[in-house]
Amino acid sequence: MMIYADNAATTKMSRAAIDAMLPCMERDFGNPSSLYSIGQRAKELLEQARADVAAVIGAVPQEILFTSGGSEADNQAIRSAAELGRRSGKTHIISTAFEHHAVLHTLKRLEKEGFEITLLDVHEDGLVRPEELEAAIREDTCLVTVMFANNEIGTIQPIRELGAICRAHGVLFHTDAVQAMGHLPIDVQADNIDLLSASAHKFHGPKGVGFLYARKGVRLTNLIEGGAQERGRRAGTENVPAIVGMAAALKESAANMHANAERMTKLRDRLIRGIGEIPHSALNGDAVRRLPGNVNFCFEGIEGESLLLLLDDRGISASSGSACTSGSLDPSHVLLAIGRVHDVAHGSLRLSIGEDTTEEEAEYIIQNVKEVVEYLRSFSPVWRDLTSGKSSFIL
Amino acid sequence: MALYSEKVMDHFRNPRNVGVIENADGIGEVGNAKCGDIMKMYLKIDDDCISDVKFETFGCGSAIASSSMATELIKGRPVHEAMQLTNKAVAEALDGLPDYKMHCSVLAEEAIQSALEDYYQKHPEKRPGA
């Protein structure tokens, strides 16, 4: 059996996306900036894609800027808000400790440039508290950036409330919606969002493309200088096939969102129940306020990379927050942010199921995770010390 | 391109000499759970030879494979030869490790050194030059 359970890393492209892309490469290959008809045909496809993307999130087409992906959108959103803040003497930014590195590293850079950064606590359940945001906002706060749903533990933040607080204080609100787009309903108006980042390959579109929503009136700073594409805010000939593929994938995901979420939530909860039967394991992040496809556990006494390799041998593709899977010495900053200690953060497993995951596959995953965890524990000196009472269980 | 060599995957999937030796002559444990790697080596020594060796490891694929290979390299060998085992020899026997995984082979070398040191502490008369 081959089970792809790493949809938070990337997704398989949808048929709709591929079918939409092929004509852009074979027939309508023109440069959208060219005046002749092949170019203008490409321009039409580009603008139709912009309208389609805008419609899904309740924006107008002029508010959508196509980028190379979520990271570029995050960088540009934060840079732009910081630049606006700097001009009015506001150099304080609020975020959270468990943002994606595209956000955290951009903030680190801004800190070196003189900005002050406050990271909100995400608590054991992986959720930001609106009242803590309210308390953290200052006179000189220029931006609040909080991810819509976390990429590792899947927790869904109270975006609408956070956005309302920002609006009341006249502070720009950005959300990295890379994991949420196409999976959760998002309405930039109702959700009080000023800036939003998304990436196509997380919702069955192609890699290397994403978009930035910027509310009308929020002036963007260019990361890439050059031609006048994207209303002068992002130079470079547009990647028309990828953009068209993204729009097709997003339209399809949005149309099936409700039914998919209902099915996936059931399977997710089955996985959480089944894997939760493993002794000395713990679910990471709130059990209910999480993405329909996200399951993330810590297992005491084992290390994540060896768990992933053995699951791969059994046909299951998954992910871990262990240091060994990242090539760094520290385990996932997300798991540390919700208070997991290093010892157990190394033994984490993320399963992110897809729309096509079946009940049979879920049962296979549960059975195999149980077997592999038990096997690895059977020769783990850490597990021996725990079970012999030489050290104490954390989970 | 695979993350690990075939040799590493073989020793990871089918680790040799896994387990515990009751009344071992030397026991060594190195690493810590905070960093994500712990190796524990058990030695049985007869007539200045490693007559048996077992290991337990908490760690990544290369940590498990390095432990397994290290036990293979010293099993049946004279103690003085086991003392000379280097991490480089372990890594080479595994047909190489990725750069950022070399520390796993270092840990295997250290675990064996630590178990031998435990043996010498129990049997000071056996220490070379004693």
How many domains of chain A, as an integer? 2
For the report, how would you describe the main beta sheet of chain A? Answer: 7 strands, mixed
What value does the average pLDDT of chain A take? 97
The CATH class designation of the largest domain in chain A is Alpha Beta
Find the count of extended strands of chain A (DSSP E, 2+ residues): 12
- The ordered string of helix (H) and strand (E) elements of chain A is EHHEHEHEHEHEEEHHEEHEHHHEHH
Helix run count of chain A: 14
Summarize the structure.
With 395 residues, chain A is of the alpha/beta class. Chain A is built from 14 helices and twelve strands.
Task: Describe this protein's structure.
Helices cover about 40% and strands about 15% of the residues of chain A. Chain A is built from 14 helices and 12 strands. Chain A has a 7-stranded mixed sheet with strand order 2-8-7-6-5-3-4, sandwiched between helices. Chain A has a 3-stranded antiparallel sheet with strand order 9-10-12. Chain A has a two-stranded parallel sheet with strand order 1-11. In chain A, helix 4 links the parallel strand 3 and strand 4. The longest helix of chain B is centred in the last third of the chain and has 21 residues, at about 100-120. Chain B has a single domain (about 5-125), classed as Sufe protein. Chain: A, CATH 3.90.1010.10. Chain B has helices spanning about 5-15, 60-75, 80-85, 85-95, 100-120; strands at about 25-30, 35-45, 50-60. The interface of A and B includes residues 302, 305, 310, 323 and 379 of A.
